[in-house]
Amino acid sequence: MRALQTGAPIGNSGARASEFPVLRITNRHVSAQICLPDTECGYYRGTRFDWSGIVRDLRSRGHRYVSEWQSRHDPLRHDGLTGPADEFTQIGYEQARPGEEFLKIGVGTLRKPYDQPYDRFRLYEIIDPGIRDLIAGRDRVEFRHRMLNDDYGYDYRKTLVLTDAPGLRLEYTLKNLGPAPLTGYVYNHNFFTLDRMATGPDTSIHFPFEPEGTWREAYDSVALTPDGVVFRRNLRTGESVFMGDLHSQDPATREYGFSLRNLATGAGIQASGSGQLSHMVLWACPTVACLEPYTPFRVFPGETGVWHIDYELLA
Q1: Shortest CA distance to 83 belongs to which of 43, 26, 119?
Q2: CA distance 180 to 175
Q3: Is the pTM of this model over 0.85?
């Protein structure tokens, strides 16, 4: 195992912007390329998603499950990242006045610029990026992010482990070190590309429940089925579909899970998790189809929240 010292900069501080610092991990069945947080040349430097454990490449048994899905990469773009990516909803934004700070777990404390609703698609000024460390092994890496100020404090750890399933397991702990509760929602956006699948009839999505929800508009390209989602045609360049309240018709069957498969190549993801599912968001464009399971979190001062997500890599 190798560890970075407390407070040490993560990554290669002398790298050019095009040389994003990465770490490669592997086991008998799976290989992954993990991006390392770096305020100067990190692969992702936006303020929407957690910087820890961004997977840029994931492969197993001749299939590639994660790859670039945008034609041009911008590390400051709100969704300029790949693979399973977590976002924690903002904390303290509504109470802060313009010029004051609010919290995004996994990013740091940010400045509220004006008296307008929070916008996850904009880039906010980072006031305090916190302290980051990591411990890496052959088939795993643990990211640690610590933050402490007068209003909020936490010790957040996210561990990525390659499993023999074959698969990828994400393990999380969030300890509240501050005076105020940490509450909100956390979800994983799941930017899986599955052999660079084109979103269309070869895109297979299934749930362990009968889904319902409201489409953003009347689409001719996509529809719910008794246990999933079907695409009637390939999505066109510039086209996207969205459902923000996808959930089980039976409240008793809010199981965290879904499967996503490329029917043309057989590559797929079977996802399951320990969190209590609130609802899902479905967002898709021509190059990626994303299921985003939302789970609530509430961690009081001195307490620790623990949860995990498992991805089985199907072939």
Answers
A1: 43
A2: 12
A3: yes
Tokens of 95: 């109470």
Structure tokens, 69: 């899905």
Query: How confident is the prediction along the chain (315 residues), in pLDDT tens digits per residue?
Result: 333 323 333 333 333 435 799 999 999 999 999 999 999 999 999 999 999 999 999 999 999 999 999 999 999 999 999 999 999 999 999 999 999 999 999 999 999 999 999 999 999 999 999 999 999 999 999 999 999 988 899 999 999 999 999 999 999 999 999 999 999 999 999 999 999 999 999 999 999 999 999 999 999 999 999 999 999 999 999 999 999 999 998 877 788 999 999 999 999 999 999 988 999 999 999 999 999 999 999 999 999 999 999 999 999
Residue 251's SS3 state is helix
Which amino acid appears at position 231 of this protein?
F
